[in-house]
């Protein structure tokens, strides 16, 4: 069976097999994300998006990022990130600081409490990745997966995963 999908003015045919692969990819991502989210919420009262923000800040120089850059890294809209950082700030995990070079710019900064919360939650996060993804695939399959994902989202040369 072939499914025809309108794409602008042209029409592209997608086979049932191709569409099923796409749907499996979506289901896998959603299933794994739900497990990670649930584990982090139950064990640490920390949403997955919050964990991601704390991680990005912890990996940045001086544990800080401009809000626009942080939004890009965690794949949230600017307004979505603002609401999330508001909650993290209320919880004492993140602070906001003005940008000296741009009066309109703001930095999100990981606090010491945020670093502690992140350190506590990281083993849970890593365990979820291991049990939901890494332990299911063998080394060759992981290399194939990395190669396929690098085709979809090429990384800068110095950051590419080994094929």
Summarize this entry quickly.
With 163 residues, the protein is of the alpha+beta class.
Overview of this structure, please?
The protein has six helices and five strands, in the order E-E-H-H-E-H-H-E-E-H-H. It is α+β, with helices and mostly antiparallel strands.
Produce the secondary structure layout.
Layout: E1 2-7, E2 10-15, H1 16-44, H2 48-58, E3 64-66, H3 67-74, H4 78-90, E4 94-99, E5 102-110, H5 112-134, H6 139-152
Antiparallel strand pairs: 1-2, 3-5, 4-5
Helix pairs in contact: 1-5, 2-5, 3-4
N-end to C-end Cα span: 34 Å
Strand order of the largest sheet: 3-5-4
Number of strands: 5
Rg, Cα atoms, Å: 19 Å
Shape by Cα distribution: globular
- Number of contiguous helices: 6
Largest sheet: 3 strands, antiparallel
What percentage of the residues does DSSP assign to strands (E)? 15-25%
List low-pLDDT spans. none
Keywords:
single chain; 163 residues; 3-stranded antiparallel sheet
């Amino acid at each position: 069976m072939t499914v025809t999908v309108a794409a602008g003015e042209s029409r592209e045919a997608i086979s049932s097999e191709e569409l099923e692969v796409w749907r499996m990819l979506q289901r896998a991502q959603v299933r794994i994300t739900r497990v990670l989210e649930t584990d982090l919420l139950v064990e640490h009262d920390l949403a997955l998006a919050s964990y991601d923000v704390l991680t990005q800040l912890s990996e940045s120089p001086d544990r800080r990022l401009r809000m626009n850059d942080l939004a890009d890294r965690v794949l949230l809209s600017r307004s979505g990130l603002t609401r999330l950082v508001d909650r993290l700030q209320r919880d004492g995990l993140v602070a906001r600081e003005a940008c000296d070079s741009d009066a309109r710019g703001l930095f999100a900064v990981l606090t010491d409490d945020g670093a502690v919360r992140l350190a506590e939650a990281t083993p849970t996060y890593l365990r979820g990745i291991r049990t939901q993804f890494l332990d299911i695939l063998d080394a060759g399959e992981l290399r194939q997966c990395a190669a396929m994902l690098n085709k979809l989202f090429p990384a800068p040369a110095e950051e590419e995963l080994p094929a």
